């Protein structure tokens, strides 16, 4: 594995930061403090170089060519699939479908498995902390097929109401679709337990892994999930690429998602037969360069080790939480026991957007608003939050800058 990071059990944070060219820039005359990682992470040089290497060295369409460039491109593309399969411990690369991202993976399942399996009165059970991309595809589906959407409530702590879940599962939903970790609260949901209970009730389980894959060890076989969807750009890789993992028996039984080249075995006007997995779900020329660089992002994460990444981000979370709690009028939204490096907060009397603008003036990038979780914001009776979210390259010093910036904003605005 190619990596310039030689780290065993802990980070040399300076060395890690050096791999990310954008972290050297300034914003409004101040060093950039990038704390919008739940939206998208920055990219290490090796990921950027991977794109250039493909386009300048072996750009070719994959799978169909017999010339050298096509063979090199195909090998690199399929190597990325191997890396992705290993990364989530899928049994086979056949179960790893490249998509445009988490959203497309969920839509793929809704339009294929969903259209075939959901009909009048069937229940799709989601949670009250879902991103819009794990709500709207199911609404489109049930509108077409006459299904019903049910929702697991969220407790004040930002955790799922598991008692309510155990009651709702008795309605025998056909599908349970929840996130592994909430982008708005940071809550890590008990996916293994939810999956096991759902399977006992005969439901298929889809997990939105957009927020979890960069931070938690993911073993789709141990979790026993049926579908797991995630995005490269939230794990140091390029935009426009993601993975939908699906269990082989489900993927084989589902109809294709899109028709076109690559997803077929044989086409005639009388009848078309579809390709083997995973190509059945990859119609047309895929995003070759970005898939290859996504593989390099996986190398990057592996070179540091997920456990190290998690431990580092956990200490940032604890440090940030303790400092923010000292600020008068500041309330953290979402204080689950199991939580990733996300701090969502509101400050009495101040609109989140004003905080965001003032922090930007200090070079600090956070996210403000509803975070594509409008029903969750409604649940907490707030229009939105300010959210700082951490990645492997963030430092305690950056959290100090964030806290100073918030204190200054409070003084100015109240
Ligand atoms: N699900 C969650 C929990 C997210 O945080 C996001 C993005 O913020 C998505 C889904 C959608 O991901 P993408 O836009 O990469 O498809």
Q: Tell me about the biggest sheet? A: 7 strands, mixed
Number of domains: 2
In CATH, the homologous superfamily of the largest domain goes by the name Type I PLP-dependent aspartate aminotransferase-like (Major domain)
Here the CATH topology of the largest domain equals Aspartate Aminotransferase, domain 2
Q: Which structural category fits the helices and strands?
A: alpha/beta
* Secondary structure: number of strands: 17
In the CATH scheme, the class of the largest domain would be: Alpha Beta
The spatial strand order of the largest sheet comes to 4-10-9-8-7-5-6
End-to-end distance, in Å? 53 Å
What integer value in Å does the Rg equal?
22 Å
Give the % helix.
25-40%
Proportion in β-strands: 15-25%
Low-confidence stretches: 1-8
- Contiguous helical run count: 14
CATH architecture of the largest domain: 3-Layer(aba) Sandwich
Give a nutshell description of this structure.
The protein has two domains: 2-31 and 305-413, Aspartate Aminotransferase, domain 1; 49-302, Type I PLP-dependent aspartate aminotransferase-like (Major domain) (Aspartate Aminotransferase, domain 2, 3-Layer(aba) Sandwich). The protein is built from 14 helices and 17 strands. The protein has helices at residues 13-18, 45-58, 68-87, 102-117, 136-145, 162-168, 191-200, 220-223, 248-253, 288-304, 306-325, 352-361, 374-379, 396-413, and strands at 26-27, 30-31, 33-34, 96-99, 123-127, 148-152, 175-179, 204-208, 227-231, 242-246, 264-267, 272-274, 330-332, 342-347, 364-365, 367-369, 385-389.
